[in-house]
Amino acid sequence: MNIILFHSTFGLRAAVHAAADRLRAAGHEVRVPDLFDGQTAGSVEEGMELRERIGTDELLRRAIRAAAPHSEQGLVYAGFSFGGAIAQNLALGDEKARGLLLLHGTSDIAEGASADGLPVQLHVADPDPFEPDDWLNTWYLGMQRAGADVEIHRYAGAGHLYTDPDLPDYDEEAAEQTWRTALGFLDTL
User: Fold this and answer.
1) Most CB within 10 Å of its CB: which of 63, 71, 116, 157?
2) What's the domain range around 73?
């Protein structure tokens, strides 16, 4: 499977490369674009400032440029938190998308978006301050209206970016369960 994996607000750090290596070890071809041009953040606040400085439009342009040369092959779009939002936006705009793997993050769904039969898997903490229950319910219904085939996996007690071993949110048990489930999902595509 050809996967494009987008980093979180923290930037392209060791945890993203480790995730890509895990996916490669399972037989997938993985690309990890650096939307922040080498910059990383030490906190969520620094990451938000970095995103604001670069700008939403520019970040989307960078993501599209990274994905476009490979989209003809039928990509699986994946991402962590903010990167999940980017992945979702690109997948919903790519009629050849093979799947969407969201780790810790979602995005608004444009009116009239179409994801006819697109397999989608979301992994999120329970509770998650960035993905509250009301939002997730609305998101789920919106994805269903768009025609996506959605699975949501919740992890009680885990922090927002619980798959990142370099952050205080890390939860080893939840992270391992996430990867087992995600790899199983990718095997079905």
Assistant:
1) 63
2) 2-187
Domain count within the chain: 1
**β-bridge partners, 121:** 101, 151
Structure tokens at 32: 């990890």
pTM of the model: 0.97
Return the sign of the alpha-carbon dihedral for residues 102, 56, 6, 49: negative
At position 48, the amino acid (one-letter code) is: M
- In this structure, are residues 113 and 188 in contact, taking their beta carbons and an 8 Å threshold? no
How far apart are alpha carbons 54 and 48 in whole angstroms?
A: 10
DSSP per-residue string spanning 100-130: EEEES------TT---TT-EEEEEEEES-TT
33-69, pLDDT tens digit by residue? Answer: 999 999 999 999 999 999 999 999 999 999 999 999 9
CATH number of the domain where residue 80 is located? 3.40.50.1820
- From the list 106, 73, 69, the residue with the least C-alpha distance to 87 is 106
From the list 89, 99, 117, the residue with the least C-alpha distance to 183 is 99
Cα–Cα distance for residue pair 145/140, rounded to 1 Å: 9
